[in-house]
Amino acid sequence: xxxxxxxxxxxxxxxxxxxxxxxxxxxxxxxxxxxxxxxxxxxxxxxxxxxxxxxxxxxxxxxxxxxxxxxxxxxxxxxxxxxxxxxxxxxxxxxxxxxxxxxxxxxxxxxxxxxxxxxxxxxxxxxxxxxxxxxxxxxxxxxxxxxxxxxxxxxxxxxxxxxxxxxxxxxxxxxxxxxxxxxxxxxxxxxxxxxxxxxxxxxxxxxxxxxxxxxxxxxxxxxxxxxxxxxxxxxxxxxxxxxxxxxxxxxxxxxxxxxxxxxx
Length: 264
Fold this sequence. Notes:
Elements: E1 12-16, H1 35-39, E2 45-48, H2 50-53, H3 58-66, E3 73-77, H4 80-85, H5 92-102, E4 109-115, H6 124-137, E5 142-145, H7 154-162, E6 166-167, E7 169-171, E8 182-183, E9 188-192, H8 205-219, E10 224-228, H9 235-246
Parallel strand pairs: 1-10, 2-3, 3-4, 4-5, 5-6, 7-9, 9-10
Antiparallel strand pairs: 6-8
Helix pairs in contact: 6-7, 8-9
């Protein structure tokens, strides 16, 4: 298949799932503008999770894109209609609809996030059919967060690699292999949900410092994202700002060989 295209001017993107600004962190952001505009002055990426639950008009995506600086990108979560309701089967119509919508982000479209239900085990023929359908229609960055243990197998790794799909490094990890990046090595995507209470708990400073070292090392070899999803009580913003302060990788680097333009 054709080489996946990336924005390579920024090698490490740190952000949150959504761009809400908790009141306790308002002082860390510019006072003027919408929440998205203010958020985008501190972070270079965000994960859109609302797309999992409902469709957004192309004009909405276009408006979001127009409100953020050029280096900023949106990772967008694939609709649950595709991943959870249809479970990757007969998804042509909702997939094409979703891709049409997100293309309105233009060069500010980052990775598509495929989060699979915990009950969806790896079936090679099903996964291959789905990924082939996706790659026929979309050549940009894709990352998958499987949550059934069968996806952490050599066969699943080979398939993700063949279709240039990265595998999320998640916390908490359902199996030990889920804690480290996998799949295609041309993209790294950390997705931390909160521990011990998912979506709620804040990570300790020591945990954030350790994560900062991991993402800095990853960013030396591939475009790297680090998204905090522990948003329920504002901890995601706390931890993202802490990680940003720990960042030791320069925000810009020369383009690596073979690295192309916008991922769409």
